[in-house]
Amino acid sequence: MIALAILFAILVVVAGISTICADKPDDQVKVAQTFAPFLLAMGAAVTFATIGWRGTINSRQADEAKRQNDAGDRKQLADLLLKGNELVEGEPSGFLLGIEFLTIVGLSSDNVLAGSALDSLARQYPKVFERDGHIGGDEIAIAFGEAERMNRINANRQMLRFPQNSTFSAFDNMPRGTYVGASVSFLNTPYLWPEMHAQGRDREIDFLSCRIFPPIDDDGLELMLDEVFYDCTFVIAGRVKTVDWRNGRDHALLDVDLSGTNFKHRDVLMGLSYNGCRFDDNDPPLVDGVPISEGSPEWVRIRGTPARA
């Protein structure tokens, strides 16, 4: 840009001197006409370059303004994250406000800070059940449901230890982690049951020493004890069509009607514990499609050995 301006000035000076030094008026006209196209072209080039230069300056100024604005937004989010963590760990009166601050950050466009905020919300979820009325539980569940629409989840998989007798319904986009000691119901959210199995296979979510309430299936529940569950007790309200497993991790069935239930393998039936389970004598459970016989080890296993609750 500067070089063009200097070149244009030199051309103007040369043209002026050449015109003045011409001896005759006709020669002056010819000289002027000779330089005119170059002067016009050079002037246009300088004008174009000036416009482009100003555009570049404006673009840089806009980028810098956006950068400063983004930096300001990030600082505000970082402050909210810090304050939110302080509030949820502080006095009970500030807990809900802390949850709100963390939710704002968790649903923000800053992926790093959002992941940290959702981590904090995940850590707080088990603590909700230590509070009267489980204050904050619905708010955290809603926050994770909203985060799902933004394709977000907590950044780090965590061990979520619940107080005794903690009971909640499974909800959309549950935090990644291992749930320990909770009672988790899928009765109101049956659509999450297959999704939970998929997440378990991906090692996103699993349950350790939990009491699980599977959904009711009018056609009979096909209970798969896979890598989602470890040392869990299952309380099943409806009919159980089949039982199978991919891990033998000391599971138990509690108060389950096993009439006509088909255990895919004998090891499955014999490997489970039973507490208060029952079946119709005329419709006993089956092993690989064959009904068990009265007095057999399988019969006694279900009816004769109490298990942990």
Could you characterize the architecture of this molecule?
The chain is of the alpha/beta class and 309 residues long. The chain has a domain at 1-75. It contains eight helices and 15 strands. It has helices at 2-21, 25-88, 95-106, 111-128, 137-149, 192-201, 266-271, 297-304; strands at residues 158-161, 167-169, 177-180, 183-185, 205-208, 211-213, 221-225, 229-230, 233-235, 240-245, 252-254, 262-263, 273-275, 286-287, 290-291. The strands form three sheets. The protein has a six-stranded parallel sheet with strand order 2-4-6-9-11-13. A five-stranded mixed sheet has the order 7-10-12-14-15. Strands 1-3-5-8 form a four-stranded parallel sheet. The longest helix has 64 residues, at 25-88. It is elongated, with a radius of gyration of 37 Å.
Write the layout of secondary structure elements.
Layout: H1 2-21, H2 25-88, H3 95-106, H4 111-128, H5 137-149, E1 158-161, E2 167-169, E3 177-180, E4 183-185, H6 192-201, E5 205-208, E6 211-213, E7 221-225, E8 229-230, E9 233-235, E10 240-245, E11 252-254, E12 262-263, H7 266-271, E13 273-275, E14 286-287, E15 290-291, H8 297-304
Parallel strand pairs: 1-3, 2-4, 3-5, 4-6, 5-8, 6-9, 7-10, 9-11, 10-12, 11-13, 12-14
Antiparallel strand pairs: 14-15
Helix pairs in contact: 1-2, 2-3, 2-4, 3-4, 3-5
